[in-house]
Design a protein that fits this description.
Helices cover 66% and strands 0% of the residues. It is mostly helical. The chain starts with 8 loop residues before the first helix and ends with a helix.
Length: 190
């Protein structure tokens, strides 16, 4: 069957544009286009025009959103980089400009270095004069002995002892109290 609508040169060029080709890839749109070519009428032309306008509007909205996302992501990346450049954490800077002291952020951080222990001191068990106390000391676990040594011979706090022994503060406190209870009981019994 011979088409009854003849295209102008300008219309043939428009049919080669990507948006028109993609529009005609949709089956419903292609059927409307074919129906218009076979029997051109104002109703079919209006249907085809309204379908193309809806398609064109949808493509424009998608293109707009695509550009919006693209440029927003670039802007966000710039803002993040600017924030990182201006808000660097420099530990050697003074905490405040007005402060007369030279306190830096680095000075306020807690130290996790283990304290130097003086090994020239005598072990605690060699300081006991009471035989029952010495026996009670020997009945303690190694951990309890170490906790008592660090606490009373080196004057460390429970938190520092916990860091050295790699235990929690609660475990240190429990072992300290248990060991003290054993030693007190041995002193009471003698």
């Amino acid at each position: 069957m011979e088409p009854s609508y003849s295209f102008t040169t300008q219309e043939r060029e428009k049919l080669k544009e990507p948006i028109v080709l993609n529009f005609l890839k949709v089956e419903a749109n292609y059927q409307k286009f074919s129906a218009f070519i076979e029997s051109p009428s104002p109703e079919i032309k209006n249907e085809l025009d309204s379908a193309f306008k809806a398609y064109y509007k949808r493509v424009k909205v998608i293109a707009y959103i695509d550009k919006l996302i693209h440029y927003y992501s670039i802007d966000l990346d710039k803002r993040i980089n600017k924030y990182r450049a201006t808000q660097q954490l420099i530990l050697d800077n003074p905490i405040s400009e007005n402060e007369s002291g030279n306190t830096t952020m680095k000075d306020t951080l807690p130290s996790y270095e283990q304290p130097m222990l003086d090994s020239s001191q005598l072990p605690l068990e060699e300081l006991f004069e009471d035989l029952n106390l010495y026996k009670a000391w020997n009945s303690l676990s190694d951990k309890q002995k170490r906790v008592l040594t660090l606490k009373y011979q080196y004057n460390l706090k429970d938190v520092e002892i916990a860091d050295i022994i790699c235990e929690t503060k609660q475990v240190i406190s429990y072992n300290h109290n248990k060991a003290i209870k054993v030693l007190r009981q041995s002193v009471k019994d003698s």
